[in-house]
Design goal:
The protein has twelve helices and twelve strands. It has 342 residues and is α/β, with parallel strands linked by helices.
């Protein structure tokens, strides 16, 4: 049975049936239940093309992937976010369209998606400070949600973010409470908003305790395993090396661990490591006891919730921005201990 036949059977318009099946709020609950029951009885399977014709929507959402050689969303964490978002799209009958674009061509891609009606909404990835994509998407009128935030932007927009500043302040405070004063920061690219906020949280914790920040033990780059390894190797060569490392990704933290263990030091005794853990499905931070003490916030869950918020924006045609701030949980593992003054 197709949409037209189901509509005829129910004595309702195709638009009403389609909106009932897709959870639009303007459809009365009694009508929705009647439509859903008939769909189950007659084994109706939604056809995206029919939905598009009936509702004037593409029943698709967009994610634009930059081809930049230096962009934090081009790491494996992006895959877990997309997996989480994809679960929500699939349950709601939406397709997901991934578009590839050079950094300097991204604006054209967004305009084309809007002009062609290819997608009903967009999730923006990897926001930078003063990100100009937000003004562009507000201008062209394409519903969008930012995964993260963009410091310096005053115009209203929808976003979902983890509280990076609070997470890194709390992690730094934890190390300070253990007696560490020489705490290294191995951060992501600081043109990216999340890394900017994490550095700020780190600095705030140090300032409140009267601990001087030291540029010699701070690094910023793409969060690869080798970046963590190289950074820790360089810092261990200093006259007074760090006793603790605060790392922006578990991927880089594995590199720090490799460097520390390669130097014959014991993690949790000679050197402490705290990292941010995105709870990646393929790279677990231990089982019952975490390997690393970590500020944990699942990027897969963030993908699910971002998709839910985007679909809410699309369905309600909501002009009021939606925002949601997630708090990371500090999980104590085996990688931290009191400062070893011996």
């Amino acid at each position: 049975m197709n949409l037209k036949e189901l509509s005829r059977h129910l004595g309702l318009s195709q638009t009403t049936v389609s909106r009932a099946l897709n959870g639009y709020p303007e459809v009365k609950e009694a009508t929705r239940q009647r439509v859903l029951a008939a769909a189950r009885t007659h084994n109706y399977a939604a056809n995206n093309r029919a939905k598009n014709l009936a509702t004037g929507q593409a029943m698709a959402t967009g994610h634009v992937i930059p081809l930049s050689s230096r962009h934090e969303m081009m790491n494996p964490i992006f895959g877990d976010f997309i997996a989480g978002a994809g679960e929500v799209y699939s349950k709601n009958g939406y397709e997901m369209i991934l578009s590839i674009a050079n950094d300097d061509d991204e604006a054209r891609v967004y305009r084309d998606l809007k002009a062609k009606g290819t997608v009903d909404g967009i999730i923006v990835h990897g926001p930078k400070l003063n990100d100009d994509r937000i003004a562009l998407l507000n201008e062209i009128g394409l519903p969008f949600l930012v995964h993260g935030r963009a410091s310096g932007i005053t115009a209203p927009y929808s976003w979902l973010d983890v509280n990076n500043r609070s997470a890194f302040k709390r992690a730094t405070d934890f190390l300070l409470d253990l007696g560490h004063r020489k705490i290294a920061l191995i951060n992501g690219l600081e043109t990216m908003d999340f890394a900017y906020r994490r550095r700020d949280g780190y600095h705030r914790a140090l300032e409140e305790r009267g601990v001087r920040s030291d540029p010699d033990i701070m690094r910023s780059d793409e969060m690869t395993e080798f970046f963590g390894y190289r950074s820790a190797c360089e810092m261990m060569m200093l006259d007074v090396p760090p006793t603790a490392y605060l790392v922006s990704s578990i991927i880089s933290a594995f590199g720090v661990r490799r460097a520390v263990e390669g130097a014959g030091l014991k993690i949790g005794k000679d050197v402490s490591i705290v990292t941010f853990d995105d709870a990646l499905s393929y790279l677990r931070n231990g089982e019952d006891v975490p390997i690393f003490t970590a500020a944990r916030s699942s990027v897969r869950d963030a993908g699910r919730r971002s998709a839910e918020l985007l679909l809410q924006l699309i369905r309600t045609n909501n002009t009021s921005p939606l925002s949601e701030l997630l708090e990371a949980e500090l999980m104590v593992g085996t990688s931290t201990g009191p400062v070893n003054n011996g």
